[in-house]
UniProtKB/TrEMBL annotation:
Keywords: Isomerase, Purine biosynthesis. GO terms for biological process: 'de novo' IMP biosynthetic process. The keyword Isomerase applies. HAMAP family: PurE_classI (MF_01929). It comes from the Bacteria. Belongs to the AIR carboxylase family. Class I subfamily. PANTHER family: PHOSPHORIBOSYLAMINOIMIDAZOLE CARBOXYLASE, PHOSPHORIBOSYLAMINOIMIDAZOLE CARBOXYLASE CATALYTIC SUBUNIT. Catalyzes the conversion of N5-carboxyaminoimidazole ribonucleotide (N5-CAIR) to 4-carboxy-5-aminoimidazole ribonucleotide (CAIR). The lineage of its organism: Bacteria, Pseudomonadati, Pseudomonadota, Betaproteobacteria, Burkholderiales. It catalyses: 5-carboxyamino-1-(5-phospho-D-ribosyl)imidazole + H(+) = 5-amino-1-(5-phospho-D-ribosyl)imidazole-4-carboxylate. The gene is purE. This is N5-carboxyaminoimidazole ribonucleotide mutase. InterPro entries: PurE_ClassI (IPR033747), PurE_dom (IPR000031), PurE_prokaryotes (IPR024694). Residues 15-166 form the PurE domain.
Amino acid sequence: MSTQTSDLNTSCAAPVVGVIMGSSSDWDIMKNAVAMLESFGVPFEARVISAHRMPQDMAEYGAVARSRGLRAIIAGAGGAAHLPGMMAALTEVPVFGVPVPSKYLRGEDSLLSIVQMPKGVPVATFAIGEAGAANAALHAVATIATTDDALHAKLVAFRAAQTEAARNMTLPA
Ligand code: RP5
């Protein structure tokens, strides 16, 4: 286990998904990614790594991400949200970016900062906020499920339950 940053949460098995965020203030959004990974039983770690306040820690995390066994990195940040893009520059592990809502620009700044990557360094960018965090986790699950039949079966079951729930939706009288 790396000692470079404080852990917000770490599952027992060796993590295959890294959930990183620029500040503990991002947790209310990013906990939705963690909850989704937990529901699928995907081993993960969750840490604060600030691109601006902890640049050397960020570089170290990216340098060893693949050798540590990470298969996806979910990176959330708000405002001048450089963490996902910089992490994508530091590792070949796929980076899924989550724009965190910001105080003054409601996360539109975060979204544009994360999505407008230069050609050659991609960040798969998700919706602003809770749905984006949950979907980033689902995308990580789907990515890993391409080579994991048991996880694929869980994803199929999740989709089926979701479909059933939608079919059973009722409208107010
Ligand atoms: C970004 O700045 C973080 O991702 C966070 O969304 C934002 C504000 O951080 P704090 O001032 O709340 O620590 O780097």
